Amino acid sequence: PRSEVYSGLEYIDTNMGGTTPLEIILRSKEKGHFRTEAGLAAIRSAQRFFDTIPETGNVRSLATLADEFRKCYPKMKDGAVVATLHSIPAAREQIRDFCDDDFTMSRVQVRMHETARTLNRKKILDALRIHLDSEPALAGLEEKRPTGVFLLYSNMLQSLIRSQKDTY
């Protein structure tokens, strides 16, 4: 905790929304799915998991972008919000951060607090997979999987622990 690296990570976790990226990839067979109310409900359902995880930092998605836009137009429905955002060139660039061009794939981008003392990557990922498989709003999707550096770190640590046990 006293090292420069830890101090830097702690600063990023505390002031910049987290250090370690985790993404959830959502894919539908239906073109335009993530422009619809059902598509945005699926995204919200996936990201709702992180409301219960204290080690979560910043969470961003097409749904969070739509929610920010809706602050200006509170009565707009999800489909109209995404259509309006898509018509604004600057917003279209932001949409590309979260969705492919035909809205069949969307991602939820999460930053985790690497310096959280309670961080247990495997436990979080196991619970996330259960959440993704059990949420009704995600049932019809072709793909729903976590990816990113957070997952890589978890797998690497699990391999290290296994190899340490095997050599003992």
Short description:
This protein is of the alpha+beta class and 168 residues long. 51% of the residues lie in helices and 15% in strands.
What do these coordinates show?
By secondary structure, the chain is α+β, with helices and mostly antiparallel strands. Helices cover 51% and strands 15% of the residues. It has seven helices and four strands. It has helices spanning 4-15, 37-48, 62-70, 78-86, 89-98, 121-134, 149-167; strands spanning 20-27, 56-60, 105-112, 143-147. The protein has a four-stranded antiparallel beta sheet with strand order 2-3-1-4. The longest helix is centred in the C-terminal third of the chain and has 19 residues, at 149-167. The two termini are 28 Å apart. 29% of the residues are buried.
